[in-house]
Amino acid sequence: MKDEASGNDDGRSLHVGHLPTFAFGHRSPMWWGTLGLVAIEATVFALVIVAYFYLRGLADAWPLSGSLPPDLLWGTVNTVVLLLSMIPNEMARRAAERLDLRGVRTGLAWCLAFSLAFLAVRALEFTALNCAWDDDAYGSVVWMMMGLHTLHLITDTWDSAVLAVLMHTGPIDGKRFVDVSENAGYWYFVVGSWLPIYATVYFGARI
Amino acid sequence: MSDAASATPAEVLEQTWRDPPGLWGWLSAVNHKTIAARFIYVTFGFFVAGGILALMMRLQLARPDSRLIGPDLYNQLFTMHGTTMMFLFAVPVMQAVAIWLLPLMLGTRTVAFPRMNAFAFWIFLFGGVMLFAAFLIGAGPDAGWFAYVPLANADYSPGKRIDIWGQMITFTETAALMEAIVIIVTIFKMRAPGMTLDRMPLFAWAMLVTSFIVLFAMPAVMLASTALITDRLVDTHFYDPELGGDALLWQHLFWFFGHPEVYLIFIPPLGVISAIIATFSRRPMVGYRAMVLALIATGFLSFGLWVHHMFATNLPELGKAFFTAASLMIAIPTAVQIFCWIATLWTGRLHLRTPLLFILAFFVILLAGGLTGLMLASVSLDTQLHDTYFVVAHLHYVLLGGAVFPMFGAFYYWYPKFTGRMMSERLGKWQFWLFFIGFNVTFFPMHILGLEGMPRRVYTYPDGMGWNAINLVATMGAFMIAASVLLFIVNAWRSRRRGAPAGADPWGGGTLEWRAASPPPAANFDVLPVVHGRYPLWQPAALPDRVAGIDPALREVLLTSVTAAEPDHRMLMPSPSPWPFVTALATTVLFVGSIFTPWAVVWASLPVAITATFWFWPRHSESRIRHEREVRPEVRS
């Protein structure tokens, strides 16, 4: 089957057959789709943080029920883990854009290891919040923030795991490398969104 | 089929892009027109259902001290009416029309993320069905469409009514957010070569602005409703003042979404109006760039108005003053657009057909609604009129005038493209006048009712208040509206078979959708166009005028750069798949399960994750084709 407008070069046709069949970064629709997702979720996080300070502004004491602020240890450990996770994340992204399958596999494996480590520490974080969701509005909003961020971590961990398996089993084509690159971009959002949440949860009740 | 050597390119394209046959194929459909048509039918079905609920209310209010409907059912009726019209009709119908039209207007074959588009439809359908199923078994929500706490909390609204309402919000907003991403990416990356942002149809601009509003507004109501559900189901205290929560937090979060929601409903019709006025004035829109800037300004300002819904609360006066100013300011970009439309009509050669009639009525109705809006933007007056029928009249003037009139205009305008047949002009004019008169007979008297102090959301009123005749008139008007909608349905139904054949461009329109056949083939265009101006069909031919190098035997599309629409790369689009439908089913189990137990969020997540993975997992055959045809981009070493 010939291409549309089979290309008599009479000036009528704009020939695009030579163009690449996939692209990275802002040239890719997937990048824009991911950015849309980031915009939505960033708005949710921003609103929860606003709700936190709104409720704090109404309270005589914060935390409300005389409970202690969250212990700093596990949250801080997790912040370090998250920041370090950007190294393999960047490795995976760059490997994807070089179409380097081995590099992608290695990068994704490390990303996955960091994600699982982070989730394990997150479980410990929940034990050190010094409040329950049903204590009062303070506990509710803290758990809401932590819960939403944990949900993001779980979904991106699953996403990374699926990609890691796919990059080992195939089928592999250029589009999969784009997926890896965009997955890395989304992970940056997960890291970036954690920093204001960390500051709010761990220091919002201390300042 | 590439091996069908005798097939013409058009036939090959049809085979490549059409949906598979049979029930499984029906569930697997991803063609944007198929999904959008379903969306349009379903949202219109909800519109009719919401209208029937309104008629029941008007019947109850036709006489004083009526015992036709009790207070409990009446509470459900107005809640379901508002919820249906706002969440299940007004926003999704505009997105549905956009999903159907935009690829045609932009000169491409499909939308970005066609499977996500299908998933959004299924989620929306299941959410709407769940809400109405609850209503029909007597568990409909009854706290109003904005479900204020503490009325909506577990103490004052026991049972599952509000949980069902809250989860319906999650369903429909999930769908709306996904559609917003689909629309934004389609507009940014899939325009025909040469269609710079400065040449894009105003309807596409309107949908772009709308979709950005969705991205930043809808999360607020999702967060609010999630917090409401957790307050009710797992004893959180977001809205409980006794334990540090705040009832006004709900209002802030809800209206941070709720006022932009008005513009989600209102901005797409602005694009529709621009399309119809240009076509029926036989000239390009006056002030194209001013129109675009006004659309963007409206989008921005829509986020600065939400507190005018809360003037009757104890917020600081300075804050109220700010929101009064912002509420008045939004009239400016609207006025800019109205003057541009008037200038276009003034300098054009008018063709007074049914679509234009609805648009001219829009001017009258919206002007009245806008003026009462300016009145309600004033704190002192709003305090008097808050929660009276004056507000009901105002919001219906704005929403029906701003959205439903243009929507009917849009249906008449694009129906020939949709079906290949013209709608009856005679029935159309009858429908228009019935609707226009019926609307004003229904809602104009409500201004007087409100000024006389009749509160909204009361199931009856005593005799001797001076409200009897006005309410009876409003009820008669409501039945005129119903007759008008019925006439529209009859017209649309009959015209599918008996309407005059439309041809590709029955109105002499200038934008790309009129280049495609009516109804458009599965692939939209036999040859992908190249664009050289804002109204390609009205401009002298220029070369190149077509794209070459896209294989018709594959679901291949051309992606262009965001601003200049220069050819960037080619991409194979996903094939039809049942997995979006299956994933939507799994997601529905999660959402519905969470109404009854929070553990559903845990155990029902796994089926969602697994089905989504199957959805994502590439087929070997498709991947092989991709790999064989691969042209790699320049790779950084």
Task: Please characterize this protein's 3D structure.
Chain A: One of its GO terms (biological process) is aerobic electron transport chain. The complex is a heterodimer of chains A (207) and B (637). By secondary structure, chain A is mainly α. Chain A has 5 helices and 1 strand; from the N terminus they run βααααα. Chain A is elongated. Chain B is mainly α and 637 residues long. Among the domains of chain B are: 283-348; 356-502; 556-630, Orthogonal Bundle (Helix Hairpins), CATH 1.10.287. Helix content of chain B is 64%, strand content 2%. In chain B, strands 2-3 form a two-stranded antiparallel sheet. The mean pLDDT of chain B is 94. Chains A and B meet through strand 1, helix 1, helix 4 and helix 5 of A and helix 1, helix 6, helix 7, helix 8 and strand 1 of B.
Please indicate the count of domains of chain A. 1
Order of helices and strands of chain A: EHHHHH
* Average pLDDT taken over every residue of chain A: 93
Largest sheet of chain A: none
What series of H and E elements makes up the topology of chain B? Answer: HHHHHHHHHHHHHHHHEEEHHHH
Mean pLDDT reading of chain B: 94
CATH level-4 homologous superfamily of chain A? Cytochrome c oxidase, subunit III, four-helix bundle
Amino-to-carboxy terminus distance of chain A = 70 Å
Strand content of chain B: under 5%
Count of helical stretches of chain A: 5
How many beta-strand elements of chain A? 1
- Per DSSP, the total helix count of chain B is 20
Strand content of chain A: under 5%
What Rg of chain A is obtained from the alpha carbons, in whole angstroms? Answer: 22 Å
CATH topology of chain A: Four Helix Bundle (Hemerythrin (Met), subunit A)
Chain pair sharing the greatest interface? A-B, 66 and 86 residues
Low-confidence stretches of chain B are: none
Helix content of chain A: over 70%
